[in-house]
Every structure is written in C-alpha cells, then in structure tokens.
Amino acid sequence: MSQPFSSLRVDPDRMRESFNQLASIGVTADSGVDRPTFSDAHLAARKWFREHIEKSSLEFHTDGAGNHSAVLPVIARSDSPEAMTKTLILGSHLDSVPNGGRFDGALGVMAALEVLKTVRENGIRLNVHLEAMDFTDEEGTLVGLLGSAALAGHLTQENLQKPRGGRDKLVEGMNRAGLSDSSMLSAARKKESLAGYLELHIEQGKRLERTKTDIGIVTAIVGIWSYRLSFIGKADHAGSTTMEDRRDASLGASAFTLAAREMVMRDFPNCVVNVGNMDFAPGAFNIVPAQVDVSLEFRSPDEDEFNHLDKALLELAAKESACFGLELKTEFLGKHSPSLMDEKVRSAFAESCDALGLSHMSLPSGAGHDGQSLADLCPVGMIFVPSVDGASHSPREFTKWEDCVNGANVLLQAALRLAM
Amino acid sequence: MSQPFSSLRVDPDRMRESFNQLASIGVTADSGVDRPTFSDAHLAARKWFREHIEKSSLEFHTDGAGNHSAVLPVIARSDSPEAMTKTLILGSHLDSVPNGGRFDGALGVMAALEVLKTVRENGIRLNVHLEAMDFTDEEGTLVGLLGSAALAGHLTQENLQKPRGGRDKLVEGMNRAGLSDSSMLSAARKKESLAGYLELHIEQGKRLERTKTDIGIVTAIVGIWSYRLSFIGKADHAGSTTMEDRRDASLGASAFTLAAREMVMRDFPNCVVNVGNMDFAPGAFNIVPAQVDVSLEFRSPDEDEFNHLDKALLELAAKESACFGLELKTEFLGKHSPSLMDEKVRSAFAESCDALGLSHMSLPSGAGHDGQSLADLCPVGMIFVPSVDGASHSPREFTKWEDCVNGANVLLQAALRLAM
After folding, report:
1. Residue ranges per domain, chain A?
2. Residue in A206, A238, A393 closest to B274 by CB
3. Residue A334: its pLDDT value, please?
4. Model ipTM?
5. Are B24 and B16 within 8 A, CB to CB?
C-alpha cells in the first residue's frame, strides 16, 4: 500500500533560488561563506531568513537563544485537540566556521523551509506542527550547539560563563543579537511539545561518494572521549648520553601514536582516534626529551565499544611507555556520549529512499550536530547527501544540486511519514 | 727507558683544598654550583682564581676575552732562545650551567693549576711555557666556547651581534667584566705561539664507570649536524574523516623518530641522534595534524661517517613520509665538524696512564669543549675521569677524589712528555 502524498516533491528551482540568495550573504572570494555566529554576515543571513519566512505566509518564530524558525501549524482537525499537538522540527544552522562553505548548515535550513512550503501549498493536514529551524551557533564560534542545547534545556550558567570562544566574545555576540544570559536560559521547551527532530546535512567524509550512494542514514552521532597522556622519561645531554642510556619520552609517544592507529583500524573499525598534538619538554635540539604530553581524542558511535576502546588505548599507552623505560600519567579530560538516532526515524528515512528510488546506507556521524542536544528528549534522525571529495568546513564544499534535491525529498517524505 | 720525572705526582691535598675553596663560591643548597658567565658568583670565582695565582708565585695573565690564566714561563736555557718558545696550555673553565655541579670545568682548571705548581716547585726545565687556563663562557650562557674561540681567532663580529643568549645579555655581561666587542676580538693568539692544549674533564656519560676504567682518552670531540624536518599532510576533521582517508603528519614524524633511533643503534654505533622537539600544526585535539616540524640533531666523531649518516637519515625521513602519503621538507640548520684529538697527545696520555698503572680506554666526547676551538691550530687532547652515574650539568655531579687525582697525574705526566 503506497503512502498518502508519496508523489509529493519539493520544488527544486525554488529551493535553489533560496539557497543561492543565502549563499551570497557573507560570500568570500573563493565562493565560500564567512558567517561566524553573530558576525555582520551572520546577522544579515538571519535577517534575510526572517524576511523570507514572513514573505512566504509561514509564521516566524524566535526564542531567547536566538533560534529562528518558520512554523507551519496544524490545520485544526476535529479529532485532534490543538492543546496536545506536538511539533516536528526540521532544520540545521546558518552560521559557518570562519571561511567555511555554502552547504554546511545552510542546505539543511533551506531544505526544511522548502518542505514546509511544499506541505503548506498542498494543504496537507498533519498531526503535528512543522517547524523549519535555524539553530544558533552550531559551529561553536561562541559555545557550540548553543541554540539546540538551550532549546533542549541542557544549557547551564556554567556553559555561558566559560564558553569555548571566551566570555567576552559571547557577551559581545549576545549584545549584537539582543540576547542575554537569562534570555538564553529561557529558551527551553517542554519535552512533551516535541514530536522529533530531523536534519539534512552534507556528509563530512567520502563514504557516500566512494560507494556512489545517494543518501546516508545516520545511525548515531559519535561520542568523544579525550585524554592528556604524559610519557615521562629523563632529560639528558643529547651528545654525551649513549642511545642505550636514554629514557627518551618521544619514543613512547611515537610508538603509541603509530600503534593506536593500527589497533583502531584493525579492531575498532567503527571508531576513529586522533593524536592532535604533542608537547615536548624541555623541547631543545640538544636535550633528550624528558616529557611528551599527547593530546588524545577518540570517537565511537557506541557506548560499549567506547569502554573497550578506552581500556585498549590506555593499556597500549602503558605497554609502549614501559617498553622504553618511561613513566605514564593519564589525565581524563572529559567525554560526550554517543547519541543514537531513533529507529523509527531511521526506518522512515529508509522507506522514503526506497519509495524515491534512491540508494541508501547506514553510517555514523563522526562530527557533532544539533540532533545530539535533542536525542534524549524526542526521536531524532539525520540524513547525509554526498559531498564532493568529502570537503567540509572549507570553501571547497560542493554537493551536486541533484543530490541536494534528493536529500530534501527524503526529508519531506520522512516528515510526512512521521507527521501523519 | 723510563721518562725523566716519571715519579713526579701532584699534591692531592693541596689540589683538594683549592678545589673545595672554589666549590664554595656560588654553592647551592644541594651542593652544586650556580656560576653562569659573569654572574656575581662567577665574577667571585674569577677573583678568587686571580688572587690564588698571585699568591702562588705564578704569573697571572688575562686577555681581552676575559680568559684568566697562570703562566709558568720557561726557565731560560742557553740552547733555546726565548723568542721561539711556545706555550702549552692546560685548562678548562670556571663558569657553570645554571644550577650545575662542582666538577664540570672546575676540576680541569684546578688540576692544570696544580700541574704548574708541581712543575715549578720541582724546578723542572721545560722547552715550552706552561699556562693553566680558565676559558670564558665555555657553557654558553652568552655565546658558548667564547674565550677559546677568541683566543683561537675564530670569533667574529657576527658571533657577538647574534649570540645564543641574546645581545643584551652579552653586552651586560661584558660590561660587568670590563670587556667589549673590540677587546674580545683582540684576544687572538698567533698559531706559532701554541704548543698544544690539554684538558682534564669529568666524563658526561657512564662508559668509564660501567667498564671500571680509570681514564678515558678522547679520540674526537663529536661534530653536530642539525635539521628541521617538516612532515606535511592535511588538516581534516578528526571525527568525520575515516582513518583510511587521513594524511596525518604525526605518523611520519613518529615513524621517523623510532626508525632513526633503531638505525643509528644498529648501523652507526659511534653516533647519536636526537629528536628534541616536535611542533604540531594546527595542534588541536579534534583536527588531524597537518604538519609536524621535527627538531633533529645528530652527532658523529668522524666526518665520513657524518656524510653516510646524513644520507641515511634523510632517506629514512623520505621513506617514512611517503609511507603515510606525506610531503617532506628538510631545512639544514648548520653543522659543527668533528675535532680529531692529536695522535701524539693521545699517545702521551696513554703512555702516562700505563706508567701510572691506570687503566684507560679511547672514547669520543659527545659534548662540545674548548679544545674544538683550538684543534686546527695546535695539537689538542682531552682526558675524562669517571663521573658517578654519568651525572653532568647537575648538582648530582660527583667524581671520587682518587679519580680526580689520577686525572691530574695523567695531565702532569702527559704535559711533561710533550714539554720536554
């Protein structure tokens, strides 16, 4: 039995016109966009989005966290008292990293808006309100996942006092947008009001491109654990100390870096590991390194696997350290748990792909997204469309328009499946 | 046939008293000494040395580089016109690294002075003047090997304009000691005036201690070559980029560090290599390292071996770089050539050890010493005495007094062999 409205499609030309108008705001010389949160260009993009919504007969909504959205309320039905109606949010973000690309975030917001327009103009009666959302500061110029955390009620005073970008920058940004600490904390919505959250995003990797797959259905947004590992040896004269007599901290750090990569590739194929920095002390040409501090981060889509990987990496560090006569100190720096995407939402995406004749595959998201803020409140799902050469956070970001339209149609069809 | 004066010995108690007086100047809480060049403590040690010489009926001498020495001139002999008489210098230095030890440098100066006293009081007629030297700034608080380079005529205006410790510090130091750029450059001696240079020093390593050998006869002061090696990959998102898709600069740097050590230990047993620092860019937990700059230094006592080692290390860096899909840039930062110790001087040391019933072994000096300034002007030789646990540049420096006396007697006997 076919779904109702299964022949419904977004208007690719209308969506493209909106996408191009948006991409011109904060455009850079190399056709990327530079719209860090609450920069002039970002404020201009937000103003354009608001005016665009108001012109399109959708309701404009904003909150104390500066989240902007278009709302398509349920058309009153006799069998569904409005007081109990939930909202299905579709969306992404309009901010970018410095000198970023046109697609990251912007595609998801424009596709969400196009879905609402398509539903509205076809007069479809749904059981939930639809909302096309631009979440504030997803990229973390100020805090990171700021708007979604505020909406989910996860934002704390401490987040605002010690933001990743520095308190001064946050205060300046909030002032520019007419926001404040207290307005931020007032943006929380009731869990009972949320029917779910769906997001379309470009893949930040090459798996779809490499396998020639149209749509990636996200299984989980990976969690992140991080450590500072200190390999500790002894500073010695690098001329007069024989090779055999050294306790060279660089050897443990180097051996761990190589072995951790090999182990993850061999035993933890769903995970990634990164040694992003090493800090040598004393760090002189002519002194055997006494201590090397390693910045270690690893990601997994699964909590159980995290525990295994954590144990394996720390054992490996201890083994390599002992192998070179070094001492090891480990400092746990914190973790974000993985966010599982909702099974029912994943099924709705998969069925929509099948109905549209689009190939699809399941894959984790290695990067963080606003959905992780909401995953413990309501059903959350994400889809990816292919990004040429896996480019992301770069002016080189490019996704073929056909793929963008495919993504928007899957978003539309999945939303209809979940909203009826 | 035994040498004349082969039964001559230094006075161990007199030498010890001088040594202990000197060790009390700039003494630290943990019984080390803190006498960086031209610090108050260093100036006090220099004043003590001058007064000590003047009280001992030796001639005090100084030059424009602040080198201080005791001179024992040849007793006029009818068959040796004074105009042609050369000088055999024995010595070391009274400056220390910050929070250094009592033996490094000080032992060599005190032993040299004791040799002169012993020769003088025995009325021995030599063919050369003897000079017990304290060279300025051996350790490099200001320039490094400053006094010996000045005496050898190797010091340049550029050395003084861009000194390792900074120009301001050098100017301040020279002012404190009543010296200037022009006085420094005036300290050069004529090559024809130099009969040779002998130095007694503690070993800065454990080879004598480990092999229970009394005296190390230095074959060469090793040369040093240094490079900055840049392993260049690509910055990528450390979450969304698969392990397979990364071009992680840390992998080339780590693999090179491990392999260089193994290669040197296996194929270049006379050499040492040190990766003293790595500098990661961008250096963030969540970004795959795009570039790692490696501070590489290697040392060899032999110029030919240097050329082979240089080639092997650069080939290794290129191989490891290619292995991980990286680009390699190499920047040669300079070299000091190895200084071969004079064969005749080495023989004089060996014969003296044999005559004194002391075991000896040949070994290179992995650290730099003033002898390298003089090795192209005159015969130069060095001996080491054992240092407990190989400690050097540390308050833990300790050499048994018996070993110090052995060293002084070898210095005395070798000087007699070379001066008659």
Report:
1. 12-221+340-419, 230-336
2. A238
3. 86
4. 0.85
5. no
